[in-house]
Amino acid sequence: MHPREGWSEDRPRLEITRRGFLGTGLAAGGLGALLAACGTSTTTGGTGPTSHGIPLPRPDQPVTWPVFPGNKAIKSGLPPERNATLQLYNWTAYINAAVVKSFEKKYHCKVQITTFNTMSEAMSKLRSGQVNFDVFMGVTVDNMGTLVEGKLIQPLNHSYLPNIANAWPDFTNPFYDRAWRYTVPYTIYTTGMAWRKDKVPENPYRMASAWAMPWQAKYKGKVAILDDYREGISLGLLKNGQYNLNTTDPGQITKSQQALQDLSRLVNVHIDNNDYSNVPSGQIWIHHAWSGDIAGALAYLPKGVSPKVLGYWFPPDGRGPVGNDTLTVLRGAKNPVLAHLFLNYLLDVGNALTNISWNGYMQPLTAVTPQRLVKEQILTPNLMSTAVLPSYFRRGVMELQLPAAANTLWQQAWLTASKGI
Amino acid sequence: MTAGQSTRRGWLARAPARPATGRRFWVLLAAPGMLWLILLFIVPFYAMLAIGAGQLNVVLQTPVPAWNPLAWSRGNLLLVLHDIGGTGAFIGPIILRTLGYVAAASLLSLLIGYPAAYFVARFAGGRKGLFLVLLIAPFWISYMMRMLAWVDLLQTNGYLNRGLNLLHIAPVNWLGGNPVAVVLGLVYGYVPYLILVLYAGLDRIDPALIEAGRDLGLGRARTFLRVTLPLSRQPILAALLITVLPMLGDYYTNQMLSGSAGTSMIGNVINGQLQAPGLQGQGAVLSTLLLLVLLVPMIYYVAATNRSAREAA
Question: Can you give the residue range of the structural domain that contains A204?
Answer without folding.
Answer: 190-321+398-419
